[in-house]
Structures are given as C-alpha cells and as structure tokens.
Specification:
It is a single chain. The protein has 29 helices and no strands. The N and C termini lie far apart (101 Å). By secondary structure, it is mainly α. The protein is elongated and about 115 Å long. The model has no long low-confidence stretch (mean pLDDT 92).
Length: 543
C-alpha cells in the first residue's frame, strides 16, 4: 500500500471521527514523507484528541517553521494558532502569548485577509476575558465577523461562544446565555470540528454553572456525556465531562456516584501531565468529602487542588468552619471576596460568608452579605441563585429574631430547591423552616420539618450538616417539658388534690416555696387555676 493510499485511509478515518485509526495512519504517512499542511493539521488535531497534546505543539511548530521559510504567512499564522492553543490548554499562558505574537507577526507582512487572523483573535479574547470582558466582547465580535466572511463554522462558533462568555462576565446574563444556546445548536448539529465541539461543550457548561443555570447544565452535561461515549478514542474532553457529571450528581444528591465520577476524572487527567483540570477534579472530591464529614480527606484534596492553581473557596472556608476554626474560615472567605470583583462570581462566596458570620455571632456582617446576595440574585434572575439568596436571608432573619419573615424566606428557598430537585439544599431550607416555626410556637409544624430535614441528611450521609443540625436543633418541647423536675412533682400533687400545705409537708418544703412553684407552673403552662392544672396533668398522662 502506497503512502497516498495510507493518507486516504487517514483522511477517511478523520472525517468519521475514528481517531485512533486517523492518528496511526496519518502518523505513518508522515513518517514516510512529510505531510502537506492540511493533512498535517488534521494529524495534529487528531493527536490532541487522542491525548497526545505534546504532538500538537510539536507538529504545528514544524508547520510554522516550514511555512515561514516558504513565505506562506497565512499557513504560518494558522500553525502558530494551534501551537498557542496547545500551550493555553496546558495552562502555560506565557508560551501561549509568545506564539500568539508570532502568529500576528506572520500576518503583518501580508495584507491578505485570512481565517487565521480570526483564530488568533479568538485566543486573544480568551486571554483577556477574565480581566477585561468588554475588550473580550469586542474581540469576539471580530472573530464572528471573520467567521462570516470566510464561511467558517468553527470560527463562527468560537465568536459566539466568546461573545456569550463576555456578556455573562459583564452581567448581561440573558444575552450571554442566548449566544451560548446558539452555539450549542451548531455543536449538536455536528457542524463543528471535534476540537472546537469539545471546547464549546465544556465552556458552555462552565458558564451554566457560573450563572447558576442548573437546567441548562444538566441538559448540556447529558449531551456532552453522549458525545464522549460515541467517540471511545477521545481523551481531552472526557475529564471535563466527568467533572461536570460529578457536579450534577452532587446536586442530585447521588453523592457516591459523584465521588466515583470525580475519581475517574482524576485518574484520567493523571495520564495528561500538567493538565490544570486536575485541580477541578480534586476540588469536587474535596467538596464531597467535606459534606460527608470526612474532614481530613477534604483538607488534603483542597490542598492538592490549590497546588494546581484551582480556587479552594468557599469550600475550604466551610471546612474550617466544620473543624471549629472560625478565624481561619473568616480569613479565607474574606480574602476570596476581596479578590473577586465580578458580581456573577461572588454569590457562593457570599452564601458561605453568611454561614461563617452567623457562626461568629456577627449578625450585622451576615446581613450585609445576604443583602448583596439578594441584589445579585435580582440582577441574574436564575431560580437556583434566588434559592441560595432566600436561604441565606432566612438564616439572617432567624438570627435577628424575625421568625415570621425567616419562615417565609425559608419556604421560598425550599419551593425552588424542590422544583430544581436539589435535595441537600431543600433539607437545609426545611431545617430553617422548622426552627422558625418553633420560634413562632408552632411545635407540630416544627417537628414535621425538623424530622424531614434530619431524615434527608441521614439518607445523604451528610455527616457535617448532621453534626451542625444536632448541635443547633433539639426536638420541639411539649409544653410540660419546660417545667423543672421539682415543678413536675408539685404539678402531680396538685392534680392529686393536695393543698399547698400538704405538698410542702410531703416534699419537705416551705409553703412559700410551694406557692412559688405553683405560680411558675401556671405561668409556664398558661393556666389560671388548680382545676385547670389538674386537667392538664391528666390530659398529658402526668399522673
């Protein structure tokens, strides 16, 4: 079989998405004779898809060198884009920036417009997105226009993706999500290349989590799972998929499967040295360990996640709170809030800040954070975030002694969590409803809510929350349980028809002391006579 025949087999495998065969055949053909750029680019993309990311950089560096020597500016720029993409994907931003400049430098000597310019600008937008979302939006618009000019589906998708991300970062969440929905149509219609499809899937799902859009996150995570399963040789996006699956399973209350998926993500990503997604997998494991009360394991995972450059808050601060290290919890969440200026990225930190402030009896500080959380929830208009804000507000109102308002806010949170099928948060809301009902004297309702909350915590094996619950909550008292043991003795004797003098003789007390006990019993049980006290004792089986 000649080299041309091998190349044709490789091209066909590439078109079908049969990545293993495409990689082996195109690699063999390249070993026989250097491939032309289009086939070399496909080999580089295939190398990336099968997990040989270093070869993407190696092959496209070679293509850049050859194109530069041949004076082919467009090809040199396109090759530089892929090298920069490879470095950016590994988190090696300095290298990525260097190759980005090389790509632009190649085009400076050529007045001809080409798709490569749009691809390079897409990387520029990704690099400035976090620091300057408005600049990223302007660049994303250029990318989309370039995609239109050259009728390039991948460029069009990158442009829309970046526009959506930038709009979300600017607080225009609805417009941003509309852009992301549009680009997902192109992905699910299989209009895009595998590399760009995987990138879009992962970035869109990340944006859904960022904007608290649980419904979209669940839907697109399911789609990404099916996409990955249809391509057994696919490597790079499978780790992202497993992390997102772990996040969704955690929300769904299926914590054992969530841990399994997070473990699988970590194992897979360990085969890709230097991949910063390791931090994300470790953070998910840390969260699950913390919720299950495995505090030492959680601390280790948070530590390792931080080593990969992943933000460890608010989880680490909540771990410190569970460990009783209130000062460390305050310091950690305070630092994270100081560094996080984008309103869309602050809600989870603010919700944790409310918990930590209330644990330290800083009700005013908790109120301030809860109010900011409510403001962000109003702006973002996402049910999940509305529930987070309502739950935090309910906690603050209860601490302020406003039980009726706390009850209303807690019910609002519980209703949303039920609709979204998030059992852990729903149980936390029921606990607050129970506490507020207890404050209002509705002991029957309180008992129902507190029992239901505790049952859910037990079912989920939410050990940390269960410990906090048991420290804070005691079963609602029946009315007579407010009496002291001596007062109960006096009540029984009153019910037996004995006078204060006889009770004093039997209990070896003064009549004055017995009279005081009787007065206390009447006050505590809201009774007005010895006859009413007698009836009460018989009704409650105290005699």
């Amino acid at each position: 079989m000649g080299t041309d025949d091998v190349i044709e087999i490789g091209r066909g495998a590439f078109r079908r998405g049969d990545w293993g065969i495409a990689y082996s055949t195109l690699s063999a053909a390249d070993d026989d004779a250097p491939l032309a750029f289009e086939d070399l680019e496909n080999l580089a993309k295939t190398a990336y898809v099968v997990g040989e990311e270093h070869r993407l950089v190696e092959l496209m560096s070679r293509a850049h060198r050859e194109a530069t020597e041949a004076g082919d500016a467009s090809t040199a720029a396109q090759a530089a884009f892929w090298v920069s993409f490879g470095y950016f994907d590994r988190g090696q931003v300095a290298q990525a920036r260097g190759w980005l400049h090389r790509g632009h430098g190649a085009l400076e000597s050529s007045p001809e417009r080409c798709p490569a310019r749009g691809y390079l600008v897409s990387l520029q937008a990704r690099l400035v997105l976090e620091e300057d979302p408005q600049a990223a939006l302007d660049l994303a618009t250029q990318v989309h226009e370039c995609g239109r000019e050259f009728d390039d589906p991948d460029l069009l998708a990158l442009g829309r993706l970046l526009q959506g991300q930038a709009l979300v970062a600017l607080g225009e969440v609805r417009r941003g999500l509309a852009c992301l929905d549009e680009v997902m149509v192109a992905v699910t219609a299989e209009e895009l290349s595998a590399v760009i499809s995987g990138l879009v899937y992962c970035q869109v799902i990340e944006a859904c989590h960022q904007t608290f859009d649980v419904s979209r996150a669940r839907e697109w995570t399911g789609a990404l799972t099916r996409w990955c399963e249809a391509q057994p040789d696919l490597v790079p996006y499978r780790g992202d998929c497993l992390i997102h699956r772990a996040q969704i399973l955690q929300l769904n209350g299926d914590w054992p499967r969530a841990m399994t998926e997070a473990d699988r993500a970590g194992t897979l990503l360990a085969t890709l040295p230097g991949n910063p997604l390791q931090g994300g997998a470790l953070y998910e494991k840390a969260e699950l360990h913390r919720l299950r009360g495995e505090l030492d394991e959680a601390a280790q995972c948070y530590r390792e996640a931080g080593g990969w450059g992943h933000e460890t808050q608010p989880g680490l601060a909540l771990l410190r709170l569970a460990q009783g290290r209130l000062d460390a919890a305050r310091a950690g969440i305070g630092r994270a809030l100081d560094e996080t200026k984008n309103p869309v990225n602050r809600p989870r930190l603010l919700a944790a800040q409310v918990e930590i402030a209330l644990a330290g009896d800083d009700v005013a500080g908790a109120r301030e954070s809860a109010e900011e959380l409510e403001r962000v929830a109003d702006e973002v208009d996402a049910p999940f975030l509305e529930a987070i804000a309502a739950l935090a507000t309910s906690s603050v109102l209860l601490a302020e002694g406003q039980a009726s308002a706390a009850l209303a806010s807690g019910r609002r949170a519980w209703t949303i969590w039920q609709q979204l099928d998030v059992p852990f948060e729903a149980a936390r809301s029921r606990a607050l409803i129970g506490l507020a009902s207890q404050e209002l004297g509705d002991h029957d309702r309180s008992e129902v809510e507190l029992r239901a909350a505790r049952a859910t915590f037990q079912e989920l094996e939410a050990v940390s929350e269960l410990r906090a619950f048991d420290e804070r909550v005691r079963p609602p008292e029946r009315e007579h349980e407010v009496l002291t043991p001596r007062e109960l003795e006096v009540l029984r004797l009153v019910a037996a028809g004995k006078s204060n003098r006889k009770i004093a003789e039997e209990l070896v007390l003064s009549e004055k002391t017995v009279a005081r006990h009787v007065a206390n019993i009447f006050a505590k049980l809201d009774l007005s006579s010895r006859a009413a006290a007698t009836a009460y004792a018989f009704q409650h089986d105290l005699v």
